[in-house]
DNA sequence: CTGAAAGCGCTTACAG
DNA sequence: CTGAAAGCGCTTACAG
């Protein structure tokens, strides 16, 4: 079924070059010839061979997203919404999306180098940055375009979208203090993650502002999954003088924390408050519904694609945007 | 940063052809030369140019999955788990995955023809088949490999994995009759879908077997989303002599149906039973948890990839498998 | 065991 | 306005 330029050219008694230019709308082809070529191509069902075009043009017309090591699974709600945004935005653009997972055993940067060197993609979408992220270092070094959610110290040649992590957590904590909570725990993630550092900072700022002490034994780490959130929260809640509010780094871990509370016979929103971050759709349907810092994950993903594509097509300008302000969404998990 | 065979060849004083063969492990290259080539390639960070290789070898080393028109969104739970399975399975294979959504306005087959003609992919994964599915007709006609979840009348040149739709729904209905439910409604999907026809058939068989009549006014259609499930269920539950059990075509619509019941002040699992199909992870966490027919969506997706890849590499044998038997997972939404 | 050559299907200067 | 030619980076018969 494969139709090539050659066949169209033969059918019409033209050269391959002329057909190519006609289809591409070059001005140096007579209008009548162009009409015939376009019509014939349509009839024959011609679509350019992707590989040939790529090889010749030296670009892939594709971008890549590799699930970061710190992302639990393909199908966790945050990742799904993020990927949905990438996919939906790309659907309207002449770019393809390559998605893969990090392959255990290899250095995290390996697959980026591989995809760039094989010219499979023209650029990358990143998230879950680390403070000194080796991926950013690599992309900077080779001048490969990227757009990332979050920004780290070395972010230079790429584009990024930021969320007001610290500020929004600080506000949330203040709100809970006003409501009467006083024994705060923080359920974080891997400590090198930018989102961990920023959200923890917001947590500390909030307590400080309200004149509360930070109890070190109430700072815990998770792997950003609900399972590890459940485990870590169980420990926190079994301590003497247990916390009455658990601020979680994201919704997934908050789901786990709520489960842990139930396991211990505590009523979430009454005996203990639990909050998340991200505002994934599922957060509205848990029992009780989860108070969270809601930012438009889906829209942000679309925005990242736009910025990356702009950058690939025109490597000059990509102005910084002001950080996105998450909405404090109060629900029953904090007694609201 | 791009390293090509040419550069390796120059570095070593060899021909491009020799380097290519050495890297490919051909037997006609001296062992010492091969060693040098492999080592140098590694040092220089060589990765073959994907487009060049594809063009020459005439294969894409990639497969495609296009979200069917009848699929609500990228991020609904079924789709996420399905895509997670595709992605995870592919991660271990030398194949890429292209995902896209159907572009409204174009015929559904358009994108399949386009991807095949541009040689972007070597084959397709399909689901949500229609009884006379134009996609299957197209792929059969052009002899393009595919693997599909569900099978339709014309399925010929492809491979498929089937689920026992009718049989499992029939069993579920019988179980509910034994529990005392007697006024059954069916919340289906677009009528041309294979899963709709099969699951509805199971519903009818179940009622017949138990000596119950089918009440036509209790057969409703949805778009497989929770929103349309909610709407359709609201109508059913407002009828005089309302149903005491709603069998839904999938979990998404069941989520909507449960919401509709709550909207009317009915207690799910007491005033009205609701059941789903698929066993998505979220079904265990709703309030109340959802009784459903659970089949391993994630695993099935992985299996489809395996079958497709086998077929691409060796277009001969792909034995039919017996249909997968969903597990009846009884939860509180049916009073279990 | 190694090299020279052809060609996959395009695009793009360069002639005419 | 159109065509002939070169070349993107590979792979693979064919010589030697």
Which key phrases capture this entry?
3 domains, 336 residues, Rossmann fold, six-stranded mixed β-sheet, five-stranded parallel β-sheet, 434 Repressor (Amino-terminal Domain), DNA-binding, homodimer, alpha/beta, 43% helix, elongated
Topology:
The structure is a homodimer of 336-residue chains.
Chain A: H1 5-12, H2 16-23, H3 31-44, H4 50-57, E1 62-67, H5 77-91, E2 96-101, H6 110-117, E3 123-126, H7 134-142, E4 146-149, E5 159-161, H8 165-179, E6 184-188, H9 194-209, E7 219-221, H10 226-238, E8 245-248, H11 251-263, E9 273-278, E10 291-294, H12 297-313, E11 327-329
Parallel strand pairs in A: 1-2, 1-3, 3-4, 4-5, 6-7, 6-8, 8-9, 9-10
Antiparallel strand pairs in A: 10-11
Helix pairs in contact in A: 1-2, 1-3, 5-12, 8-9, 10-11
Chain A binds a DNA duplex (16 and 16 nucleotides) through helix 2 and helix 4.
How would you explain this protein's 3D organization?
- 2 copies of one chain form a homodimer.
- Chain A is an alpha/beta fold and 336 residues long.
- Chain A has 3 domains: 5-48, lambda repressor-like DNA-binding domains (434 Repressor (Amino-terminal Domain)), CATH 1.10.260.40; 62-163 and 298-325, 3-Layer(aba) Sandwich (Rossmann fold); 165-295 and 328-334, Response regulator (Rossmann fold, 3-Layer(aba) Sandwich), CATH 3.40.50.
- In chain A, 43% of the residues lie in helices and 14% in strands.
- The first copy, chain A, contains 12 helices and 11 strands.
- Chain A has helices spanning 5-12, 16-23, 31-44, 50-57, 77-91, 110-117, 134-142, 165-179, 194-209, 226-238, 251-263, 297-313, and strands spanning 62-67, 96-101, 123-126, 146-149, 159-161, 184-188, 219-221, 245-248, 273-278, 291-294, 327-329.
- In chain A, strands 7-6-8-9-10-11 form a 6-stranded mixed β-sheet, with helices on both faces. Chain A has a 5-stranded parallel β-sheet with strand order 2-1-3-4-5, sandwiched between helices.
- In chain A, strand 3 (123-126), helix 7 and strand 4 (146-149) form a beta-alpha-beta unit.
- The mean pLDDT of chain A is 92.
- The interface between A and B is large, with 48 and 48 residues.
- The structure holds a DNA duplex (16 and 16 nucleotides).
